[in-house]
Amino acid sequence: MARREALLDAWLGPAALDAGTRETGRQLLEQLAQALDLNHHGLFAYSVKWSRLISPGKSGNSPDWRRLCEKLPALLADHLPVEEAAEARKVVEAALAELPIEKPVGSSGFLREKTSLGRMARDYLDALLQGDRATASNLVLREVEKGTCVKEIYLRVFQPVQREVGRLWQTNRMTVAQEHFCTAATQLIMSQLYPRIFAGKKNGFTLVATGVAGELHEIGIRMVADFFEMEGWNTFYCGTNTPAADVVALVETEKAVLLAVSMTMAKHLTSMREVVRLIRDNPRTRDVKILVGGLPFAQSPDLWQSCQADGTASDAAGAIHLAAGWFGLNEAGSPMEG
Amino acid sequence: MTAPLVKNPSGASCLALLCNDSGVVLEVLRDDFHLSERARPGALIFGMGAPAQREELAGFFQHLVRNGAVAGWRIALPTDHGYLPLLFGGGLAGKVCLVLATRAEEGDGVRLEEELMRINNEQTNLLREVSHKLAHRERKKLDTGGDDGLDDFSRLNNELVNLQRKLIKQNADLARLNEQKNRFLGMAAHDLRSPLGVVHTFSGFLQEEVLDKLDAEQREFLDIIRRTSEFMLQLVNDLLDISAIEAGKLILRRDPVDLSRLVADNVALNRVLASRKNVRLTLKSTSDLPPVPCDSVKIGQVLNNLIDNAVKFSPLGGSVAVTLDLDGDHVRLVVADQGAGIPEEERARLFQPFGRPGSQGTSGERGTGLGLAIVRRIIEGHGGRIGVESEPGRGSTFFFTLPLS
After folding, report:
1. CA distances in angstroms from B404 to A144, B383, B384, listed in the order given
2. Domain containing residue A317
C-alpha cells in the first residue's frame, strides 16, 4: 500500500495533492494491478478512457490521464520488482496504443430530454436528488396508468437514471449517501411495477439470474431478469449471496436453458469462473447457455470467452437480443415458426 | 468571533492548522498572524507561501507525513506587513496533521517542541475527536467501498426487493394456477353433469314405473341411487357455479323484481320439505316494498339455499322465521332457525368454499360445502352484504341486504 502511495506521489507530482485526482490515480493503479492479474490490458485502457471523460479535478484543471500514463512505464521500474515492472509496462504500453492522443469531449450525461419520457426521467431524478421518493414514485405510476408499457419505463427512465446516478457519483457531484438513496428508491419503485411484469403470458423458457460474491450493485442484473420476464420468460433471480452450488441446483431443478451472471468488479472473476465450471461439470446443466455481464466485460470485450461463457451483453436489450438468437425467439419473446 | 480552539498557555502568538495527509487545510484552529486569507479550509498549506517558499513548505510537509512529527523548520511567510519569519513544526495523528508555527524570534526549536507538547497534551482529545469526524467524512467520499452503514442498508434493501420479487412472482403463479384449476373444474363438472342427469332421471322413472315389481332390498338400492345421484348433481352444479364465479364470470341480469313475491314463492316451495320434519316455516313481509333491482334467478338461488339450510339444521318440530323488511335504502332479509347454532371459530370460515366440513342436517341431510360461498358472492355481486349471528344452542340467524338503487 505504501509502495503504491509513493508511486502515486512520484507519478502525479503536485497534482497528487488534489484529493479527487489522487483518488482517480489510486483507482487507475488498482485497475492496472487487476489487468496484470487477469492478463487483460483492455481493463486498464478502459479505465484510462473513463478517467479522461469524467474530469475528476475539483479545481476544473483535470489532468490528461493519457499524458500522465506516458510517464508510468519509466516510473514502474523504480517502484516494482523487475518482472512485475516489465509486465506492467506491457499493459500500459498496450493501453496507450489504444488511446487517441486527443482528449475526448466530456460526457454530457445519460438523460435525453427531447422525448416526454426523457423529460420525465429528468424530473424523476430531480425528485430523488431532493429526497422526494413519493413524487418520483407518482411520476412513474402515473405514466404507467396512462398506458406506457413497463418495458419503456425500464429502458427510458430507470436505466438512464441509474447510469446518470453512477456518473454523478463518479464525478463527485453526488454523495455516496445520495447514490445509495437513489438506487434504493428506484428498486422500491420498480417493485411497485412487479405485479404488471409477472402477469404476462409465458413462452416456456426459463432463465436463472445471479450476481457473484455478495456484490452490492445488483439492480442491473435484476433489471435484466425483469426484462426476460417481460419477454415471456419464467425467471428466477437468486441475488448475490446464493452459493454457486445452489445456483446450479436451481438451474437444474427449474430446467433453465439460460443462466445470466453479473460481475461488477474484476476481482470476483474467480467466483464467476467457479459458477461456470460447476454448470459445465454437471451433465444435466452442461448445455445451458451462459450469459455474462457487468463492467469488466464491457471494459475487456474478450473477457467472456476466457470465462467459458457463451456471450456477453452490455444491457438488458442486448441480453434479450442474444438470447433470441440462441433460442430462435422473435422480438416478442415467442418461439419463431418454421 | 469564536474562541480559538487551541489554547495557548504561554501566551505566545501562533498559527495552528489541521490538514489531511495531502496538505489540504481542514480546519484553522488558531491564526494569530492573520493569515486566514491564505490558510483557509480547503486551501493547500503550500499556498501560504510565496512561490519561493512553496518548495520549502512542501519539503516540511513531506517530512512531517513521512516521519510522523517534525520541528524547527524556519520558513518566512508573506503578511500585510512584509515577510514574517516563522518556526514550523507539527505531528501526524492517523491521516490528520497538526501544523504549528510561532514567531522565529519568540522561540527556537526547543521552545516550539515544548509548545507542541503542551498543546498536544491539552488538545489530544479534541484532536482525536476531530480526526475521527474528519476521517469519517473523508471516507464517505473517498473510500470506494462506500460507507459500512450505507452498504448494510443497501444489502438489506436488496434482499427485501429480491424477496418482494419472489413473492409477487409466486403470487402471479398461484393466480395462474387458480385460473387453470377453475377452468379444469368447470370442464370436469360439465362433463359429469350429463351422465349424472341420466342416472338421476332414469332411477326416477324406475321408482315410478316398476316399484311394485321390486322387493324391499331392491327398492332401497334404487332409493339410494336416486338420492346419491341427486346429491352429486347438486355438487356438480355448485362446482360449476363457484368455478364460474371465481373465474370472474358471475353474470347478473338485474331487473326490477317484486322481492316479496319471490320470497313468498320460495317459502311455499320449502314448506313441503319443512313439513316432512314437522318444521314450521313462517314469513313476515312488509307490504310497501318497492321493486328491487336484482337477478331474480340468482336471488332465488340464495333464498332457497338459506331457507333450505335453516330447515335442514332445525330440530324436528322446530320453527324457521323468514322476515323481509326495509332497512334505509336497502332491503333486508332474515332467516332465523332454532338449530344447534354455529361455534365462533366456524363462523369465520362459514362463507368460504368447504368452510364447514362434515356438517350434517338434523335428519342426516348433506351439504355440498359450496352453497354459502356461492350465496356470498351473489349477494356481494349485487352490492349487498351477508352475515350470520349465532350462538351454540340458541339457533342461527342469517341475513342479507340488497341496495334499492
Report:
1. 37, 10, 10
2. 202-327
Say yes or no: B152 and B234 in one domain.
no
Query: B219-278: per-residue pLDDT in tens?
Result: 999 999 998 898 888 888 888 888 888 777 788 899 999 999 999 999 998 998 899 889
Q: Looking at the predicted structure, is the pLDDT value of residue A252 above 90? A: yes
Nearest by CB to residue B168, choosing from A23, A195, A214, is A195
Query: Residue A181 carries which side chain, given as an amino acid letter?
Result: F
Q: Are B14 and B102 in contact (CB under 8 A)?
A: yes
| Domain-embedded: residue A110 | no
Does B7 map to a domain? Answer: no
Measured at the CA of B265, the angle between CA B262 and CA B270, to 5 degrees, comes to 125
Query: What does pLDDT average to over chain A?
Result: 84
B18 and B147 part of one domain: yes
- Give the pLDDT confidence of B330-355 residue by residue, as tens digits: 999 999 999 989 888 888 788 888 87
- CB-CB under 8 Å, B144 with A19: no
Which residue, among A1, A5, A17, A21, would best test binding to B if mutated, counting the most B CBs under 10 Å from its CB? A17
Angle (CA) A89 A95 A101, round 5°: 120
In tens, the pLDDT along A143-177 reads 999 999 999 999 899 999 998 998 888 777 788 78
Contact B361, B312 (CB under 8 A): yes
Contact yes or no for B161 and A198 at CB 8 A: no
Reported ipTM: the value is 0.70
CA distance linking residue A52 with residue B374, whole number of Å: 70
CA distance B364 to B133: 81
Contacts of A334 (CB under 8 A, 6+ apart): A203, A232
